[in-house]
Amino acid sequence: MGASDKVLGGTMLLAAGVVFTYYTTWAMLLPFFDPSSEIHNFFPSREWAVRLPAAILLVGITAIGSFVGSTVIKENRKKAQRLRTA
């Protein structure tokens, strides 16, 4: 199990590095290249450099909030059930 964890961790680290490099180039370095440069063909429109992370953040916060909310509701139901049976 230890070797597979290392492979998974290495793969995740490599994927994070690739995503970081791509996004950094897209959002921070692309404005310094001439608009007619071929490098612009590898990236979507710059407005998506803001929209995409904002959408991911919104979905993430919604998922975390939903999880916390459902956990609180379940715990309150368990407490109420215990009080009724006691």
UniProtKB/TrEMBL annotation:
* UniProt keyword terms in alphabetical order: Endoplasmic reticulum, Membrane, Transmembrane, Transmembrane helix
* GO biological process: one example: dolichol phosphate mannose biosynthetic process
Q: How does it sit in the membrane?
A: Multi-pass membrane protein
Provide the GO MF annotations for this entry: enzyme regulator activity
Q: Name one Pfam family in it.
A: DPM2
Keyword check for Endoplasmic reticulum, yes or no: yes
GO CC annotations, alphabetized: dolichol-phosphate-mannose synthase complex; endoplasmic reticulum membrane
Keyword Transferase set for record: no
The family line of this record is: Belongs to the DPM2 family.
* Subunit relationships: Component of the dolichol-phosphate mannose (DPM) synthase complex.
Q: Which PANTHER family match?
A: DOLICHOL PHOSPHATE-MANNOSE BIOSYNTHESIS REGULATORY PROTEIN (PTHR15039:SF11)
* Biological role stated in the UniProt entry: Regulatory subunit of the dolichol-phosphate mannose (DPM) synthase complex; essential for the ER localization.
Q: Which protein, by its recorded name, is this?
A: Dolichol phosphate-mannose biosynthesis regulatory protein
